């Protein structure tokens, strides 16, 4: 893109992780809205993409985010039995369960990804997910190992 | 073998089927055979080199076989799972195919291997075989052979070794393995359950799977393929056998199958009525990884 | 899309304090495809919206990004403004730089950088947006109500009074449901039939209600606004158009000793019968299990032992036509109001995993009855004409023991949930009894008293304080017949003492369960149900009378244990939803639904398995000669709710969810991370 406004290295030299979040519209996106309305401060490292439902969140999104430079990913939706579409999160849960163990087996640390249920009333929990993930990824360092598999410098 | 040849000739002569798919002797070991003329039925063989899962030819993605009408196909007990998968997923009508089940006491790793089976040369998937007698077939042929030699599964052992490593070491292993993939798509072509009309990896808008065969694209491709086969893979090992780069793809398939079995209590079955686990859910599915 | 306008809002100081809106506009203006970018104090204000419209006109913009608050706040506002400017409203997207940025960050450069990222990602997404048109579905403005109890009656009347036609299907020979069996109702003690029967008659006489009693729903096809319902009209054995309900047939029937379902087995009825005198419709039905002639016809006999009813009927209405009739109705909405059944203590519930209560001797000891049987004993229209007589010897009981929570709140042997109505009706029973037998003793064994409801707690207090009901907190371990009495052995958990009472009659307040066969009906309707067989509402708080299938609503005790006021409230709520749906001849829906690429669909139907709404159908693709080429998935746009689970599941990505397509998401990821 023409302007890379998030850089992995800040001027101070500390690592600022880039974290891509995929959230459902009804619970977590609204919970993140509530965090805003409640003025709960949190790390500015997370970029949210809104989907209707966790059921819509394809594992391809996660791999693509890592490919494109994300150091961490958050996937979040409605708690079990709260899905706006009845069962989208249950389908997603199975999908992510297998995905997580699969990438683990392939040597990609699944701690790069936070899976969570954040309801529309859990603004505080959302801020914790954001801050905890940012801190964790900061400790883990850039995910250049995966990004760099293409042979180019990350 | 005679029994198979005679039956094939009869089915073709009676026009019960238009084509029999089985195995024959090729210049380098056993190979798939396509017999449309009853006179050619004598070409058909079955022995421990007939490793190929011929159910792959029943996929509707083989339109060149469509003109033959009903097809008879020779299947080992384990191959029936792939047929069930096709039926389960509306890719095949069971009545459109005649299953010639062959009683099997295990096969070699490669169709070029020869000689009696030993614990050393037995294909890994045959260890602990429970389907020497092929289930759900229209005809079952041959004598019931003795159980294959017993030993520990090599792949299960390899998976346990890999599981014991740390992420960096596992990553190094797979980076090395997957760097050799040239994306020839042999794994996809030979897979009986890769039934998509247009593969996701061939889609350019958007290009979810990068098309250049670099290691990162190969990770995404093989991870995605394994996920799409979760709860569907029949563990025939054909992808690994077909891989010209010798990548141990079956390790990935087996790992996912183990995860699916542990988490959802499901093993790929030869019963087409049993629904697959992905696309289903239970309220109490494990979610220890979700905050 | 090459001429996108980006409009950055300051939201007064809300965004402006931490995000440099002018900088966001400047950076966005440099993005490829962006033809115009500006910032303004309040974009949602009239001048702000005018600014957008003006820019669209002047700069010939073909897409709009508003970087402001959450789309949940103002997406509608800005899409309307975009439409007002002559651009398809779905070509307007919002970048959330307030809730997700300015309000949660304090570092101005970091927040500004993030706001630029968010806006860029939305711009890239918008480039892949397609103009969408709302989905318009014609609505058949007639409703089907399944179940003719109080909930179904109320729903049918409300919809019909609202000006729409209703088809009311009742499984039994008469409408009225359980309420028609009750003697009095809590907490007012007004006579149940007195308030119910006028409503039943109203149903019968209503010009817009078509009553199909003694009928069952066979199949339901279609979707919201367009359901085709197949209904089986069970054979009554007589011509309903000729019958005038005179009752001569019933009087002539020699089979007089059949236990009456209406009287909960305490009274008797004939083989040709009207279940109760106020039945609606007042047309008899012949009980195939007991009528000698019917059994003879089924056996193929030429001569019959009996034909008394045929002789008795002055109108030649009794035809013994035993053919069920299948009718079809087209409706736009369905209200499910199939009610409940009581936990049958005497029956083996092995199949349901319920162990039952053998120690209470129900079915074995004649003077152990359930609450509904007590209602019949207390009812003026009951088998004893309201005189309290116990079943064994007709004696007036001097002591009655009531046991609450039989089957309810008992995960070990019954059901874990609370049946909700029992506390209240037991209190009512004690009062009815004491009003009839002033010096009788009414003892209630209870776990807790749950009397939440208007006038409910006061009602229970009245039973105890004014009508002298004795409440013992504790469980009863055993009921035994001892000569003339039923010995009740229990434990008073407040005093810590065992209690033994010799009762003349014991009444079990048995659990409320879902109707048998409800699962099959729910499957026909594609609505979900819980493990107890109660229909699931779409949302427990906000959509209590909708189901997960659009156009199908739920009312009364088929959703959960409900008392009469709750059932009626739900029924009226469901009716108002139906009338809302029927307020327009066409239904307009957001077009964010799934679309199948038929060229690449392999027809594996993984999508169909994951669809919670049954929106995925099979579609046959044929060549010019009519030969089947392949079968593909096809999404019914009227049914799809737009969750997108199908798309994530489709291995070949042959489904796209409009508004959240793969190219859109891909572009958004790329813009963030690329």
Explain what the structure shows.
The complex is a heterotrimer of chains A (154), B (291) and C (674). Chain A is α/β, with parallel strands linked by helices and 154 residues long. Chain A is 38% helix and 15% strand. Chain A is built from five helices and four strands. A four-stranded parallel β-sheet of chain A has the order 2-1-3-4, sandwiched between helices. Chain B is of the alpha/beta class. Chain B has two domains: 140 residues, no CATH class; 111 residues, no CATH class. In chain B, strands 1, 2, 3, 4, 5 and 6 form a six-stranded mixed β-sheet that branches. In chain B, helix 3 packs across helix 8. The model of chain B has no long low-confidence stretch (mean pLDDT 95). Chain C is α/β, with parallel strands linked by helices. In chain C, 28% of the residues lie in helices and 24% in strands. A five-stranded parallel β-sheet of chain C has the order 10-7-6-18-29. A five-stranded parallel β-sheet of chain C has the order 20-27-21-22-23. Chain C has a four-stranded parallel β-sheet with strand order 2-1-3-4, with helices on both faces. The longest helix of chain C has 20 residues. The mean pLDDT of chain C is 94.
For the structure shown, list the relevant keywords:
heterotrimer; B: 291 residues; alpha/beta; globular; C: 674 residues; FAD/NAD(P)-binding domain; 5 domains; five-stranded parallel beta sheet; 18 helices; 34 strands
